[in-house]
Amino acid sequence: MGNIVKDSNMTTGDNKDFHDVAFYRFVIDSLPTAVLTVNADRKITGFNPWAEKITGYSKREALGKYCGKILQGGMCLANCPLKTAMNENKPVSLVETTIVNKWGETIPIRINTAGLFDDNDHLIGGVESFHDISRLKSLEREKGNLISMFAHDMKSSLTIIGGFVIRLLKKTSQIDAEKQKKYLGIIKNESGKLESLINEFLAFSRLQTGRLKFNLSATSLDKELMELSDSYELKASESGINLVLENEAELPVIMADTDQLRRVFTNLLDNAIKFSKGKGTITISTHETAEEVVIKVKDEGMGIEQDELPYIFDSFRRGRGTERKEGFGLGLAAVKAIVEGHGGRVIVESEPGKGSVFTVVLPKARDWEEASK
């Protein structure tokens, strides 16, 4: 496509070729998959709108850059499929790998690549198409996590309940009133865990399937964050943690579902307290850009392993070292669903032993009438 050059002395056939090239470019730009082209040095020469959407980089930012610098692919340094296709003149199909977008998020993708050669079989470049398979991978992991979690947590609670019920039925005359009360209390607690699990699952299911509608209204983020900070200050201090709110600049009022946004920040604060070391500081900080409002929740806790970060927002996901913590791994999944439902995004940065930073980015304005239908 890009190797055809025409001058002012075009013949009728040349004009046809020119229009064919324009048509092909139109088709590529219209494809619902990301497509980039490179020259023989793997510098980007073409970058369609879906590539812009997935990577976060504009066409202007990408053109002329080495493809590995823009994609930061998991296979860029070794076994690069595009390099292989160009060197061996053999297409490479359906390879799964990852890229890192403009905001530092790791995105799983599936790619197809091929070299571009002229009529004399000389290499002139390459083409790569790829699409985001985050949702597919998330569903695969959620399915495995769901089965494992239900098998473990439900069996554990049911076993405890069954054991104490049998003991009460068979040895009623040998158990005094105080022990009976204790056993019944254990049964009540375990049944409560089962009910909580089911309720969390149903709530998240409504979010995922879009059955939970957002009740949008003018929302003061300053007010909500100050109220949350006040309500969590005592809880944090009881755990030996200092809670700080840094929002000196007044934030704009946005259209949002206040209750759901509170759920986002209560989840993030609960996690920050839960996974902190019993000391240190949790900081809520805010700032705004021309089009967005940014809220960061930073802790000095146990942090998250790097290989866990791409999956931290999966439902029923509990990372290494968190198995004994309360909860079913639905909180962060709900956070992501709610923030994205508001047209925003949530980003996590973490280092084991040094804490985590969760960044919530919300748009100042959008077509909320259409979004709330």
Q: Helices, strands, pairings?
A:
Layout: H1 12-30, E1 34-39, E2 44-47, H2 49-55, H3 59-62, H4 67-71, H5 81-88, E3 92-100, E4 106-117, E5 123-132, H6 134-170, H7 177-209, E6 217-220, H8 221-238, E7 242-246, E8 253-256, H9 258-274, E9 281-288, E10 292-298, H10 331-341, E11 345-351, E12 355-363, H11 368-371
Parallel strand pairs: 7-9
Antiparallel strand pairs: 1-2, 1-5, 3-4, 4-5, 6-8, 9-10, 10-12, 11-12
Helix pairs in contact: 6-7, 8-9, 9-10
Descriptors:
373 residues, alpha+beta, Helix Hairpins, Heat Shock Protein 90, five-stranded antiparallel beta sheet, five-stranded mixed beta sheet, 44% helix, globular, disordered N terminus
